[in-house]
Amino acid sequence: MNDRECSRIFENELVKCSRCGSCRSICPVSLAENAENATPRSKVRMIEAVLEGELALTPGVQARFDKCLLCKACKANCGGGVATDELILGSRINLVKRNGLNPVKRLAFTSLRYRKLFDLGLKLGAAFQGLIFKDLPDGSGKVARIPLPAAGLNLRRVVPNLTTSPLRTRLPAVNKAKTPETKGRVVFFTGCTLNYMYPQAGEAVVNILTGNGYEVIIPPEQCCCGTPAFTSGDAATGRVLAEQNVRAIGAYKYDHVVTACSSCGAALLAEYGRLLEGSPLLEDWRQLSGKVLDIAQFVVRHCDMTKFGSLPLKITYHDACHLVRGMKVSAEPREIFRAIPGLEYAEMKDADRCCGAGGTFSAVYYELSRKINDWKLDNAEATGMDYVVAGCSACRMHITDGLSQRSSKMKVLHTAEVVAMAYEAGRKG
Amino acid sequence: MLTSSVISELKAIVGSGYVLTDQEDLIIYSNDATVFNHLPAAVVQPANRDEVAAVVKVAAARNIPVTPRGAGTCLSGGAVPLKGGIVLDLARLNKIRTLDAARKIVVAEAGVVTFEITSQAAKLGLLYPPDPSSLKESTIGGNVAECAGGPKGVKYGITRNFVLGLEAVLPDGTIVETGNAVDGDMCGPDWTMLITGSEGTMAIVTAVTLRLVPMPETKKTMLATFDRLENAAKTVSVTMGAGIIPTTLELMDNLSIVAVEKAVRIGLPVEAAGLLLIEVDGVPSTVEENARRVSEICRECGAMEVKIAQSAAEAEDLWVARRAVAKAFGQIAPCKFAEDSTVPRSLIPLLVDKCLEIQKKYDLPMVIVGHAGDGSMHPTIMFDKRDKDAVARAEKALDEVHIVTLELGGTLSGEHGIGSAKAPYLRAEMGPVGYKLGQDVKAALDPQGIMNPGKMFNYEGALH
Ligand SMILES: Cc1cc2nc3c(=O)[nH]c(=O)nc-3n(C[C@H](O)[C@H](O)[C@H](O)COP(=O)(O)OP(=O)(O)OC[C@H]3O[C@@H](n4cnc5c(N)ncnc54)[C@H](O)[C@@H]3O)c2cc1C
Q1: Is the CB of B94 under 6 A from ligand 1?
Q2: CATH number given to B216-330
């Protein structure tokens, strides 16, 4: 976003804020902090003061703008329809231009730009994780041996095992349909968390697609979608990554682009428009954007849900922010669960409230994000179900961490894993 | 500016993390839900009554203005620190001390969000009726200070009808307890009611004892449309006259119906002059009977159509229009003056007519919704604050709405308070003697004038 566009957005949005404060009861951060200076309204107020010359873009403003999960709940509930998320993103970009990026983030985003470096970093990480982390007895993940606050690695925090064989090294670039006839071609944008942390969920996606007659392309040149960078205000890195992905996907002929990570999906679907303003690749992105579907949408629209076998799981569902408000996907997963015989489903209270992960938010404000996560877990546990299902691996990571902290028996699954299991059950009859 | 020694004293009382002096925070706490701003010198966030008292003592010793603040949803500028000094943020006083189902009372600290009280009471089968639309954000302290009301006011009353007692810190830092948890207590004048509605100008409320009532067993929701607004108003009067007191009697005028229909497309009759959303509650047999009679009355009074919800889901459908109002208004223009003019019920059509005239005269969109049961109407004037000419016209229109309301024998504030926004009209409303009495009482309680200065009886601008 350039400066002119930025100030236009600012002006149009600021004027809509009536300061009513209704966002106080919606914003998870405001609720957890119980203070005006954590509200969305206060952020609008700060921008207004900056534009009126009463306030400079100080590190103090930056710190307050960083305290936002970008869950979009304030925008969705705002009577005046203030696009707070855009205001916050735009401000972060300007703040980063002025004050620079937090050094840890700077390092991380530089390696994101160089996919091979990032791959290597995470693979080395996988090999050496034993030095820094110790395994939890149940094999569900690891906790840090030494506190690494800069990386958000609190001693308590449980992170999933980094896999030594990422999804994209397990599977070929082209995966043939498992049916006699091929219905179409799907590009699978894996995203980082599925690739490096939850490859089994990525495999589930591929199995669903190939089983339903689609050829699946996993472009090897795809890289991080850029969300962690541009949501932190590093628009330059965001743009480099966006261009790389548009090129990587555009190298193939396809009917659909499927994502199984809500942040990647929302980025490809919508956020790239802003990042690619003025880029020669903008038009290519527009074509691509019209074909993006989350895996749950894809299943409902293009897969045979009559082939689900009986799956006696007891589940509840958590709406990832970028899925429910970013991609407007919330009915589809529920429709899928209703279609699976034998599956018991219970809705949790405030299913669409943020789990507190918020990408790099949980790294910087770990204790705060834990508090927000605890509400989610209380609501999930209150359903009496055995599994929390979510369509986002970042949520999964954070919820798994929380569940293990409280020694809960609940487990987390990706929607795609549930669907793949239901098909598996169907095949076995 | 506060000297560094004052700041250290304040920090010693509440802890250093709870005295905010960063420019960013001063700006954030410079306003409430109005367009007014004024920077405080510091924001102080005490954790309990004794810290509140200690902070006020420091302020009193040095003549520092103190502006109490709950959730900052005030619509009359009450929480704006007009004279700088300390914004006293009461959000941390957020414990419910007692919830007694047998005695049907709740004792809550001032910073408890009202909805928390409503939900905790509901778990015990009890109802805390006052339901301002800011219920989920505003604090009980703020509600008491503003004497907030809501749709349920018609049947149950507003905040003051539920306050049994208060714990408050006076402007010299002493602590007073007024009233008690027994309804019949009446020794001398009612200090509880003096502080209730005083908008933080006489004392800082630290805890509130509230009366609860049994939860009604069931309710029934209806929606009636009218081709003439008079008929809607008549329906309200006839219903109440027949001894039926609905819990909700929400009125929308034609312009708001059109605006809502445009925003949400739910098939509202855009040709209707007005619409009434009516809800009756109680024991099932009475509720059925009352709903039937209310729908009869609607028809007798000339309703074009009456819908009665047959299920909870249908009831929700009928509420959609009313709930969509805020969103719909946002689509007409980004800014608004949401007024709060209360007139005798029978004069509602007249008020609406006058408002339509004002709207034409100043050429600004204006819509009217409100709680028809108690005549509390919200004429809302819309504009874009970047258009300076529109702002000037909106201010003039607002002034005329106030005058018209007073001329109709109404009151300027059914529920949003006086603060600084409506202070210019307060003398006109109370009469010179009443106003003088108010000034004297204020001076007796707060001789230094440090408590929320510049508001209500201490307003310094021109009076009407
Ligand atoms: C969207 C919206 C809808 C609203 N709907 C309604 C409605 O339906 N009915 C209605 O009546 N009002 C309504 N209001 C107005 C407002 O919500 C109420 O006046 C509410 O009671 C204010 O509570 P608060 O906690 O936000 O107080 P604040 O705004 O923080 O303060 C309000 C006033 O009370 C004083 N004060 C606050 N706490 C204390 C305390 N503990 N002791 C002494 N003084 C104190 C402040 O100094 C200020 O003068 C609405 C406001 C908004 C923005």
Answers
A1: no
A2: 3.30.70.2190
